[in-house]
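tool_call predict_complex ligand=iron/sulfur cluster
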Amino acid sequence: MESLLYIHVPFCQRLCGYCDFYKTMSLRHLPDYPQALLTEAEHRREELSDTTLSTIYFGGGTPSLLTPEAIGGLLDGFGNIWDTSQVGEITLEANPDDLTAERLEGYRRAGINRLSIGIQSFDDEQLRFMNRRHDAAAARRAIEEARSAGFDNISIDLIYGVPCGKDGIWQRNIEEALSLNPEHISAYHLTIEEKTLFGKRGVQPVAEEQSEEQFLLLHRRLTEAGYDHYEISNFAREGRRSQHNSGYWRGVPYLGLGPGAHSFGGTRRSWNLPLVARYVADPTDPTLRESEELTPTEQAEEYLMVGLRTREGIDLEVMEQRFGSERALYTLLQAKPYITSGAVINEGSRLRCDAEHWLVSDAVISDLF
Ligand code: SF4
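tool_result ok
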């Protein structure tokens, strides 16, 4: 059985206005962090012992605050704990500011073969508004340096629906992204959560029509340029889909290391509490981990929610096998009005949302629950 490994690196040098991930600005625990991760990995060795690890993903936070030596040490350490010989994709999320030529070469040598660079925008005014650490020139330079260091699998993150800047910025961001020819683009709509800096400052979201317009522009322009729009927020050149995230969407079990990281074992979800100081003091402390067993209804809802955001959609035959014929039939009946309106496409036993309707897929999904 296949499995995935996720490592959360919860350190950031600056807080982005929209961010609601678990992170800390204190770098006090950064030097001890790799050893704590290896201790947790060793402690949880059994959870992956009967599986074939296929991807490793360093996410954050800002994993590029870890040196190449630290990343290399972690990958070697994981290789001593589990069989990593079948691992294909090893991703590092990185902030453009951290990606010097020297670091990039070090990461390549350490074994990283995919970079996910948090560009967000190529407009300095928007970057300042979001309180990002880099400017547009640093974003361009990071991609060029990554190419020079030999990375041939680069993903960039962009954010749309940003209530700042002149008309046409989103279109320029898309064109600039295309001119850099990354293998993969993730584009997320800005959300404003209460506890974030934006939430506290009362930043208002853009109008719905603008969101839709920007999403459609993104979809049309990127698909025209040959990218596969394979999930609501993700676009890839042929053969360059994110193997790690695709694994999540297929329901592959994963182990998450580090405070705030989540794990999934098929029907059971667990998570580490977001408490970095206690984690570094004792990563094996059982009171730092919580878990829950998913009911069959929750599993079916998860399958629908994740599947309908992907290009492949859901398979009613799989639903029938996993959750019973009644549940599969109910889903089909609930989907009928959307099939009639064209928002949902029914091909054989599969149901999928039409890509142009993905932005409103939440409404479809909740009606199928
Ligand atoms: S968006 Fe990323 S870099 Fe910015 S604060 Fe959040 S985790 Fe840190």
